[in-house]
Amino acid sequence: MLLFLSVAAAILLSPWFDFGRDALSDLGASGGLAEAAFNSGLMISGVALFGYSALSLRMRARKAWYALCSAGIFLSLVGAVSLRYYEAHFAVSAGLFLSLILASGLYFREKGERIALLGIIACVSWVLYVLGITGAAVPEIVTWLGMVPWIGLSSRGVLLEKKSK
User: Fold this and answer.
1) What is the mean pLDDT of residues 48-63?
2) What is this structure's pTM?
3) What is the pLDDT of residue 56?
4) What are the pLDDT digits (tens) for 93-146?
5) What is the average pLDDT score of the chain?
6) What angle do helix axes 117-130 and 86-111 make, rounded to 10 degrees?
7) Hey, where are the domains in the chain?
8) Long-range residue pairs from 3-8, CB within 8 A, at least 24 positions apart, any chain
9) Quick one: DSSP state of residue 130?
10) How far is it, in rounded angstroms, from Cα 43 to Cα 88?
């Protein structure tokens, strides 16, 4: 939730931002309050994602938790390494989105939860970006929106398992 709030705040503070042209990471190198909101939100959310994965998901989905822990680390790094350092930022961003898609596939394979396929369907939006049809912000948001349902479902499953013990 913090991730979406920080991105929304950065967008609201950046009237120049255009979903069809820009990447979300442009917000992290824009200066001022928008940059601070965006990057700190990513770093904190990355730590939270790593913590959830390492402490809870690992008991529920032994393979997917590795990929989601990696995604948490990469998410924090995306916030720490701004777009001003393009090559390094590109590497950690690619690592983030690849690990998110991998986590979705592994979770589906381990748990059979079809909702995890939403994370894999996000690949279609990346094809649109590569073809120049849309800016990077669209597949970035589509990927995250594909992740939220199955991560939420997995956290619900973890809570229910803990209550039954």
Assistant:
1) 89
2) 0.90
3) 84
4) 999 999 999 999 999 999 999 999 988 888 889 999 999 998 899 999 999 898
5) 90
6) 150
7) 45-164
8) 3/41, 3/42, 3/45, 3/75, 3/144, 4/144, 5/41, 6/37, 6/38, 6/40, 6/41, 6/42, 6/45, 7/38, 7/41
9) H
10) 16
In our burial notation (b when 16+ CB lie closer than 10 A, e otherwise), range 102-113 reads bbbbbbbeebeb
**Six-digit token pair at 93?**
């961003």
49 and 71 Cβ atoms separated by less than 8 Å: yes
Q: Which of 89, 88, 78 is nearest to 44 (CA)?
A: 78
Q: Could you give the CA distance from residue 18 to residue 12 in angstroms, rounded to a whole number?
A: 11
Spatial contact of 130 and 140, defined as CB atoms under 8 Å apart: no
User: What CA–CA distance (Å, rounded) separates 153 from 156?
Assistant: 5
pLDDT at 162: 61
Q: Comparing C-alpha atoms, which of 131, 53, 143 is closest to residue 94?
A: 143
The helix or strand, by DSSP H or E, that contains position 149, with its residue range, turns out to be helix 137-164
Residue whose structure tokens are 């601070």: 36
Rg over alpha carbons for the chain, rounded to the nearest Å, is 16
Q: What is the DSSP letter of 30?
A: S
CA 135/CA 116 separation, integer angstroms: 24
Instruction: Give residue-wise pLDDT tens across range 146-160.
Output: 898 888 888 876 666
